[in-house]
Every structure is written in structure tokens, then in C-alpha cells.
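#struct-pred

JT: dropping the chains for the assembly here, can someone run the whole complex?
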Amino acid sequence: MASVVELLSLTNPVFKSYVFWTGVLVLKMLFMSVLTGMQRFKTKTFANPEDLLSPKLKVKFDDPNVERVRRAHRNDLENIVPFLIVGLLYTLTNPSAFLAINLFRAVGIARIVHTLVYAVVVIPQPARALSFFVAAGATVYMAFQIMVTAAF
Amino acid sequence: MASVVELLSLTNPVFKSYVFWTGVLVLKMLFMSVLTGMQRFKTKTFANPEDLLSPKLKVKFDDPNVERVRRAHRNDLENIVPFLIVGLLYTLTNPSAFLAINLFRAVGIARIVHTLVYAVVVIPQPARALSFFVAAGATVYMAFQIMVTAAF
Amino acid sequence: MASVVELLSLTNPVFKSYVFWTGVLVLKMLFMSVLTGMQRFKTKTFANPEDLLSPKLKVKFDDPNVERVRRAHRNDLENIVPFLIVGLLYTLTNPSAFLAINLFRAVGIARIVHTLVYAVVVIPQPARALSFFVAAGATVYMAFQIMVTAAF
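RK: done, full complex below.
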């Protein structure tokens, strides 16, 4: 299993796992917009004049509930997006299936937990820190692996 | 047309369409930096002391025109980037060419409209909401498809 | 060398270079979270109540050192992420190896310099502007190339 023909086929369990978790994590990320919208309507916090539901409302940028969801969303962009790109290239380096699939699982589950404890039900630290570091650690490992594989 | 050799070739009309719209949307996204820069110079709103054009100016973070373009740019990151990754994997699931090409077109056109009505000429709602939901809906559909395809 | 089998193999020097710089730039981007964390602890600036280290502290959003690193991080999302996607598709268009490898190098080095002069040791302009435009210029060129290649 050394050619891209096998590596990028859904018969390759590593690629299959990568595609599955990419689907899950992209759906999770896009759901952050729904969560933001829900908080905006609930707290009547809108960032644009054309979004105001009533002429009595004014634009507002400092609602803590809205800003919390926005911080969680931005954290997704900072961490999930790099994983999605690195995970694809890591799959192309023909890694051990056991290791690769568990790395993808770790990132997937950790980032779902991160969202839950950050933006859905706030759980005291170190819940968020731990979920952040599991996903970041796995992504750093994969990024380092592809860099080293390509360097020599 | 089941192997990656055909799927990721420019002779595959689905991949061709994906590459075209990726080029268009990345150029559009990078243009947001130009728009932000134009608004910064026009309103003399700079975020860093080393950017100030004159010693009389101070850093400023609340100009509504600058912040509007920055919100549109962030919205691109939240929506275009996930599409770019999901679109590539969706292409690899060998979808119906007619459906796939029209999904890519829908995302591409909707995100251009989103920028126009948000950051170029402000159009009252629901213009922005509609363009947002067309692109998000198509991306959710593709993400769901790749997740399900990889799950079974 | 026209098939994806050769193009996405590490025996293709263009793909090898792309994978190497992707690893480097993703590690660099993830390091921005470390830099942000360091500035947060140093200046005791935390954005969430559950992150406060002592009951005397309050959430704070306007520390200039924290915000500077966060702006640099966001600028990475706006510029490195589009490059990572466009670079992969550009590799698939079978470009001149000399040109492609030097474009990847230019983006990689320019974005490292951008971080250094923006968020590590602040260097007066036009240091940051120059590093920004080198990377953005190379990415625009590649995005334009893939768009045109796919359009005809």
C-alpha cells in the first residue's frame, strides 16, 4: 500500500477514518454558526445595523454568551482546520493504521468535548485545557511526522 | 471512474469545477485583506502603533467600516475554508457530476454575493442571510455525504 | 509526470516541498497558541471566568500584548490556510518544479518572518508589510494559475 491509488481509496481504513472525522468535525464547526445565531437572538446582540430586529435595538459587541461561542468557533478554526490538512498529508505518508486511526479519533473526540465544555455547558478548567491539548498534541505529532518525512 | 487517478484528474469535470471554484474563492478571500486595508487607510484606523502614518494618530479598534470588512473576512474563514476541504473529499467519493458541479457553483456564487452585500454595498437583510444559508446548506450536505460514505 | 500517482508521491520534488512547508507552517501556526498563552499568563489577561487564576482577577480583553499575538494568529488563518489548499492543487497542475518549490519556499519563509516581526520582536514597518505581500503575492499567483488551468 504505497501508491496514492490505494492510500486515497475508501478501502484504506486510514483514509476512511480521516474522511469520517473530517465530515464530523466540519459539521461540528458549521454548527457553531447556529449556536452563535441562537445566542444572538436570545440576547438580542447583533453586530450589524441591518440585522437589528427592532428600531429600538443598537449594535452590540460585548455580550458574554455570544462572545464565548465566537471564541470557541475561532478556536476551532485555529485547531480543526490545520488538523484537516495535516491529516490528509499524514494519510499520504502511509502511517501505521492503528496509530493513525487513533490519532484521528483523539482529535475528533477531543474537539467535540472542547466545544461542549466551552460553549454548551461551561465546565471548570482543566476540562477545556485538556481537550485542547489532546487535539493539539496529536496534530503537532502528525505535522512533525510529515515535515520530517518530506525533509529526508 | 472509481480510482483517484481519474477522480483527481482535470479530465474529471467534477474535479475541474472544484479546482476552478477553489481558485476563485481563494482569490476572493485574499481580496478581503485589500478591502480591509482600503478601509483602514480611508478611515485612518490602525491596530498597531508601528502602522500609524502620523505621530498624531492613535491605535483604534472600533471603526464600523473596518470592522464590517473584518467580520465578512472572518465569515469567509468560517465557511469557505470548510467547503474547500469537504469539496475535495466529496470529489473523491465519485458523486454525480451534475449534482457536484452545481453544489460547487452554488457555494462559489453564494459566497461572492455574501461578500458583495456584506462588505461592498450593504444590502438589507435577508440578502446576506440567504447567501449564507445557500453556501452553508451545500457544505453541510457534502460534509454529511462524506461522513456517511466513510462510516459504512 | 502527468498522473496523480506521480504528482502526489514523495518522489515528486514539488509535492515533497509542499508537504515539508505544510508541516513547518502548521507547527508555526499552532505555536501561536503557545505564544498567546504565554502573554495571557504574563499579563494575567484571561477571556473566560473559568480561566481566572485568582478570585481577584476579572476577565479582560484589551491587553495590547495578547491582542497583538491574536492578530498575528488571525493573519495566519487568513493567509497560511488558503496557501495550504491552493499549494496542493497547484502541485496537481504539474507546474515547473523550480518555480513551484521557490514559491512554496517564499511563502514559508515570508510567513515565518511575518510572525517574528509582528508577534515576537516588533520591527518597524515595512518589515511586516513586505513579508505579508511576498506570501500573499505567491498565493495569489498559484490561485490564479489553478483557476485558469481549470477554466479551459
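JT: nice. The radius of gyration of chain C is 19 Å. Chain C is about 75% helix and 0% strand.
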